[in-house]
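Extended Data, panel c. Modelled sequence:
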Amino acid sequence: MRGVLVYGFQSLLGWAQLALGVYAAVMLIDAAVRRDDAYRAADKQTKPMWLIFLALATLLLFVMPLMSFLPIIGVIAVIVYTVDVRPALRHATGGGGGPRRGGSSSDGPYGPYNGGR
């Protein structure tokens, strides 16, 4: 019974690693098609730096086992690009990262933010 559980866990981990590797490759392509000046406008690292980070993350996710230390660092780099850099790049290029429904840049989730006044 224990062998079946270990095999099932390893199979699940293998699928998770494959999904993370594919997602890292998609984020690498996303970073490659962004304009170089958008990285400077968003005040993020340079485009070549993010291409190196994401390429290494993609390579590590496809080559090394997920429970190793280096692929975990690669996953963290992909997460940082996804939640921080990519929205800033979209906002810098005017592509969907700004406010919706005609609001201003100071609108919060419950309406305009007036700085505590």
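The helical segments are 2-33, 36-41, 47-63, 69-92. This feature is highlighted in the accompanying rendering.
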